[in-house]
Structures are given as C-alpha cells and as structure tokens.
Design goal:
It contains six helices and six strands. It is an alpha+beta fold. The chain has two domains: 68 residues; 118 residues. The protein is rod-shaped and about 85 Å long. The termini are far apart.
Length: 205
C-alpha cells in the first residue's frame, strides 16, 4: 500500500506585524492631512501592534522583520506629540518679533516727524537710503515672516503687518500715529478698531 502524502499546514499571516507596518505608513503619508497629535496616536497604536507582532512571530515563525519595521516607524511618529507645543512657541516668538518691528517703525515715525515736520509715507523713507531710522531688513517691507506696509494718511500714517504664510500665524497687526498696536485673529486684517495688544497679551506657551 502506498502511503498517503502529508501536507504541511498553511502558515498563518501575522496580522499584528503587518498592521504595525501599515499604521506606520499611514502616519507618514497622512501627516499633511492629519494633525500632529493624530499622527502620534497612530504611532502609539503601531508600536503596540508591532510589539504584539514580534511576540506572535515566535509562534507563527513569520512577520519578525515586518513587525520590527513597524516598530521603528511607529517610534518615529510618537514624538509628534510635542509638535503642537513647539509650533505654539515658534508662533509666539514670531509675533513678539512683529510687535518689536511695529514699535520700531512707530518710534522712527516720531523721529521723522520731529525732523521733517511730517510723517514718512513709506518704509523706504525710513530706511538707510533715506533718513536711516530703521534697518534695511525692515525697510524692505518683509521681516519675521511678515509683510509690512507703511502708508500715509491725511492725519498721519498707518503701518500694517500680515503673515506671508498663513500657516505661520493667523494674526495681523495694525498701528498708526496713536502708537497703539492692534491685532486681529482671522481672515480680516487688523484695523484702527481692532483690539489693542501688548506683548503680554499674546497667546501663552
């Protein structure tokens, strides 16, 4: 009698290992569409799945390398938890810099008015090529990631600041011969009727 051939049982797929890798890939490519905190949580889930996948790999004898890759990628995603705090600090630093520029321009306008009996009509008039009351970096109209516009009015002048990139900050700033700096958060630019702002009133860390 011929012996019946025995077949080796099919190996099971290590779902946790592949799930860990999949979560890592989703976190990497989904960063542009999801917030940093969501990406970090995906990293946590991927790490858990990867660890379980490594344990399963000892039994299933497959998925060891895949789970390791998932763990590595997931560990790279978890630090995204810190990004919101870092972004908040960076935004505040930028906005404080903008306030300093606004105050510099206001002080320069006061000096210009005392020297020439009128207010400067543009930042160029305050720059090194003219009265030399503000640095060249401010006279160009772009500084700290903001665009500054100085314009003359029948009663004095206005200075406005708007972010070049909306992702950097959503705040716009306004000031005039009153020397009061005002700000607005949102799509509408700050005006003479906007809320007055001081450096201590900027968003906290």
């Amino acid at each position: 009698m011929s012996e019946t051939p025995t077949t080796e049982p099919a190996k099971r797929l290590n779902l946790f290992a592949w799930g860990s890798l999949a979560l890592g890939v989703v976190g990497i490519y989904g960063f542009m569409f999801m917030g940093a905190v969501v990406v970090a949580w995906i990293g946590v889930l991927g790490l858990i799945a990867g660890v379980v996948g490594r344990m399963k790999a000892k039994v299933l004898r497959r998925g060891r390398g895949v789970s390791f890759a998932g763990i590595v990628i997931s560990c790279l995603l978890i630090p995204f938890f810190a990004l919101p705090g870092i972004e908040a600090r960076r935004t505040q630093a930028v906005e404080l810099g903008v306030l300093r520029v606004m105050k510099t321009v206001n002080a320069a306008e006061v000096k210009y008015n005392s020297q020439f009996g009128r207010y400067a009509q543009s930042l160029t008039e305050l720059g090194p090529s003219a009265s030399n009351l503000v640095p060249a970096g401010i006279a160009t109209g772009e500084s700290m990631g903001y665009h500054f516009t100085l314009a003359g009015t029948p009663t004095g002048y206005t200075i406005t600041a708007a972010p070049l990139d909306g992702r950097m900050s959503s705040r716009t700033f306004y000031s005039d011969q009153s020397l009061v700096i005002r700000e607005n958060s949102g799509p509408e630019p700050a005006t003479a009727t906007s809320k007055a702002v001081e450096s201590g009133n900027l968003r906290p860390f």
